[in-house]
Amino acid sequence: MLGRRDALKLSAAGAAGIAVPGVLGARSLRRAFAAGPAAPAFTRPLALPRVLRPVRRTMTTDYYEMAVREAETEILPGVKTRVVAYDGSFPGPTIRALKGRRVVVRQSNDLDMDVSTHLHGGHVSPGDDGHPAFPVAPGDARDYTYPNAQPAATLWYHDHVHHMEAEMVFRGLSGLYVIDDPMEWALGLPNGAYDVPIVMRDIHLDDAGQIVWEMGDFQNRNTILVNGRTQPYFEVAARKYRLRLVNGSNMRFFNLSLSNGGDLTVIGGDGGLLPAPQTVKSVQLSAGERADVVVDFGAYEPGTRIVLTNAFGTDAATREIMRFDVGSPVRDRSRVPDRLGRTLALPDADVTRDVVMDFNPATNEWTMDGRAFDMNRVDIKIKRGQTEIWRVKSDSTHLPVPHNIHLHGTHFEVLDRDGRPPAPHETGPKDTVAVMAGSTVRIKVRYDRYLGRYLYHCHLLDHSAMGMMAQAEIVA
Ligand SMILES: [Cu+2]
């Protein structure tokens, strides 16, 4: 947490045009800014992103097409907000893939600038990973091939174009990508209409309801959206639901709980199902992280209203994310078995390396191991199949702010955080993990698929766009 002096320092940095970092709990700083336009809470129903239909199916492959273009959406009731959107949808359309069945997405670019689409959490070849070295030029298109040879999981796709990813994601370029698995269906978890995406993000709107983009402008992003709308309500039957919680913010961390103190049963994390369900009272998600939770609304009386609460919020608009309105009981045959997925079960590590995330006050750049990103530079070479332990440290000497780390191309195990065990939602395969100011998270990593270059970076996108990114080359 920041003290007042730190907040003042950050305030000065902001005035000087420096990328102001995302700050948890900087209440004194936040109060200095006026809130944006607001809609009354819980007046509109939860919107569900539309599910994209394949344009063609073969024995092995589902083919999709979408265009990146400008569009208008109704974030606030009755107000048209200009966004940049996949296929004109905000958030982008959902792709539901099947494990073991290939997906090819043709992304065409109707903007007047480059784009590059990354499937976050997907195990895909370096050429299909949305690396900024392979952008799609205006008027062009690119086919991205996703093998889906990985466990069922809640993934998301978003823009990763060089230096502009933070702005483009902020303006709307992200969407859900869910890998389903018939083996998972056999577990009996809530599915169909009871499997619901909850994609949360913050945004800064001006008085006319238009997006205000400024790098590092965390303290003004005080409007929270769920599936693209402010503070929706969701009428649920009195039964179990699977909620796919996704933090699609650029920088904001959420600490989520139910306002009635009810249980959240975490069943999955970034990389798919946890080994076993974990019943908790709260789940903390940094930008880019996901957690699948089951909530049994059958435990509550019809008519009960439960707010999904963010303990990191500083006012009603940032604390009260959405509301569940419990309706009548319905037959519920779903269950949460005691055993779900698997750990990566990686062997003992061959190599240990340190990764240090820091800020360089001389250049105003965010750095990984003292350097800002250069896409023509390989920062580390890793032998394919080798198990490594990374000690990832958020160095708080220059700016005491939280970061996280996201690895492209593989999953990792979270070993510990400052010597303490990982949080319940961190007990399965992960691709993104929070690294709080001054703390060190140890992860165990193995790249065992493709050779080539993969990014690793802070997923506070205003940080990665300002240098906090590096690349590993996987070698034979
Ligand atoms: Cu960061």
Automatic annotation (TrEMBL):
InterPro entries: Cu-oxidase-like_N, Cu-oxidase_2nd, Cu-oxidase_C, Cu-oxidase_fam, Cu_oxidase_Cu_BS, Cupredoxin, TAT_signal. Signal peptide: none annotated. Gene3D superfamilies: Cupredoxins - blue copper proteins. Belongs to the multicopper oxidase family. Its EC number is 1.16.3.4. Monomer. This is Multicopper oxidase CueO. The keyword Oxidoreductase applies. It comes from Actinomadura yumaensis. It is an enzyme of class 1 (oxidoreductase). It catalyses: 4 Cu(+) + O2 + 4 H(+) = 4 Cu(2+) + 2 H2O. The keyword Acyltransferase does not apply.
